[in-house]
Amino acid sequence: MFEEAQYFAPVAKREDGSVTVELASSHPGFADAVYRERRNAIAALALNYQPGDPVPHAEYTEEEHQVWALVSRELAAKHQRYAIREFLDATERLGLPKDHIPQLQEVSDRLYPLTGFRYIPAAGLVPLREFYGVLADGYFHSTQYIRHHSVPFYTPEPDIIHEVIGHANTLASDRFAELYRVAGGAARRVESEDALQFVSKVFWFTLEFGVMREASELKAYGAGILSSYGEIEEFRGMDIRPLDLKAMGTTEYDITKYQDVLFEAMSFDQLEDVVGSFWATCDDDSIARLLADG
């Protein structure tokens, strides 16, 4: 859940080269001048980043490292109860630090030898086609900022906890990494905005907010659930529906609250067969036929 309707705070680059992140008045860090200045500096790092360069180093305070350590510890305990085995094994494989916020370059250095994925910095919102498209090449856009220390278990926008604890752990799995890649290929292949939205919605209801049956229990595999301290405790009580491409690609969702409609894969094999095969082959015509099918 990301409770600010903007999803990402707007980022503005001034004529003098300065960068400003426009936090909403409801943002926990709105009145914290030090936090806001650091958010501006971190956004500037991403805006000035050149592809192929090492990811620039972001400075974090001791309070922020403590937020990472606390949330990382609490989520790890919840993962043991609620996450699918593929995610747990990938988490152990990646071995993220638990006591400090990793630099995105450190995440890339750990991830690339495992599945070929690298992280690249994002100042804020990345256009849909660009965000998904580079997945095909093994790149994942990620913010570098962390939530305000006053509310460690809440973020009004996707932060590095979501991007790394949620997505990087997932990307350390060969099977998941392949799903991300074919999703990226689909985003590049389709031409219309409607088809792109369909592809992105399927991604939302699977790799962001997917659930799966495992040993007769409902478990989570979506990064949005697995990085949310609150939502991970609530997903089993939502409206759980069978995995269905047309339903996922046409269901509206509200980013400002917990996702109340979720789609259940009966196994990882089914996820690959249904969703992976769709992304690997879909185009505008096949999506149009899917939508026209009664």
UniProtKB/TrEMBL annotation:
InterPro entries per record: ArAA_hydroxylase, ArAA_hydroxylase_sf, Aro-AA_hydroxylase_C_sf, Aromatic-AA_hydroxylase_C
The EC number(s) this enzyme carries: 1.14.16.1
GO molecular function: phenylalanine 4-monooxygenase activity
EC primary class: oxidoreductase
The Biopterin-dependent aromatic amino acid hydroxylase family profile domain, residue ranges: 1-294
Needed co-factor(s): Fe(2+)
Family: Belongs to the biopterin-dependent aromatic amino acid hydroxylase family.
NCBIfam families per UniProt: PRK11913.1-2
Protein known as: Phenylalanine 4-monooxygenase
